């Protein structure tokens, strides 16, 4: 643990080497070092239980970096970028750097790192240009999803202020570097862009428009991004109010559950102000693996509801099949195996199947939210005069399961 105890005294020694871009050879090691330093500036801070190194590298993701540590130093090396050059191409500019960048940081005073220290070193990449790292971010709603998403923003080096109705849920994030806001209004007052990840339409409306709500702190030059799963009507109501304050509005519900949220692999279904979408793309990319811009407000909600309607029906059918198979004396494990090899194999069955068989009901996607999404789908289908009989039947199953859950009856086969 010698390294931890020398926190205040450590000196950063940078020795760098950069492979030159085609046809532009850098003369000597000094120039190479300054190239790497200039193009991949880094901050390194030692916190109570981990080291955080934040590096600016435009256009690169974690997969583009190789990070190695030994007892004395950490080395961060990029892969070469690829420039595709076809035979008939006529090039007018070749400014992008395509070689590798290497940054080495020597640990202080020759301190030896223990295995735990090495594992605690964390490297965050923050593309310098276009990361909008200067923006102060707010995050309202620290449930299963919000906590994981806000954490990824903090880890990526953003200045994040969090708020949650049950204040105790802020503590972990505050200890990891987030600021705490006292009310949604207080958060939007302090922040340039505020994200909201709330349970349902009632919560989304209350937090945005209620007393001490987000609206009170919004104004020209700010943005409000609602990533909760709500109906198009709720989105449009929040959108109108936000825009009347002079702020920009984006809805961006997500597909993907607790694990994708933790791993920064969500899928964003965004719609609303394109300017705000462009501003928050780097943050969406920190929290997600892909994103869709769907145009007018309401389209994100509609897309999310369609996706979750299908998911709800699939899960109900999956559970029904397992119960029927069990009654018929089939081995449930074998049912999962047969499913996994056929045309209806999918990540959700593979992930949920084993936990269902183990009667492990710890929620990643709470049942009440899946039922809410089916309810929203039925409401949408009413408005559009479209029959959705399968989803309607599935909704009845979830209603029963939800009632059982509320009575603390754990014998519920449907769980997400
Ligand atoms: N979990 C999942 O797999 C996914 C969920 N979603 C959607 O994301 C949203 C959040 O989901 P998740 O994080 O799982 O849900 P949780 O139930 O874990 O969290 C809900 C959040 O909403 C807050 N909240 C609820 N009611 C109110 C209210 N009236 N006023 C203020 N805050 C309120 C809760 O605060 P408090 O802590 O005080 O209760 C909590 O922060 C939902 O719309 C859900 O459908 C989307 C994709 C995946
Ligand atoms: O909304 C839930 C999900 O898994 O996506």
From TrEMBL:
Keywords of the record: NAD, NADP, Oxidoreductase, Stress response
Keyword NADP (UniProt): yes
Annotated Gene Ontology cellular component terms: chloroplast
A GO molecular-function descriptor: glyoxylate reductase (NADPH) activity
InterPro entries in the cross-refs: 3-OH-isobutyrate_DH-rel_CS, 6-PGluconate_DH-like_C_sf, 6PGD_dom2, 6PGDH_NADP-bd, A-crystallin/Hsp20_dom, HIBADH-like_NADP-bd, HIBADH-related_NP60_sf, HSP20-like_chaperone
Reactions mediated catalytically: 4-hydroxybutanoate + NADP(+) = succinate semialdehyde + NADPH + H(+); glycolate + NADP(+) = glyoxylate + NADPH + H(+)
Keyword ATP-binding part of the UniProt annotation: no
Domain SHSP: 33-163
CDD domains found in the cross-reference section: ACD_sHsps-like
Family per record: Belongs to the HIBADH-related family. NP60 subfamily. Belongs to the small heat shock protein (HSP20) family.
Functional summary from the UniProt entry: Catalyzes the NADPH-dependent reduction of glyoxylate to glycolate as well as succinic semialdehyde (SSA) to gamma-hydroxybutyrate in vitro. May function in redox homeostasis and play a role in oxidative stress tolerance by detoxifying glyoxylate and SSA generated in glycolate metabolism and GABA metabolism, respectively.
Protein known as: SHSP domain-containing protein
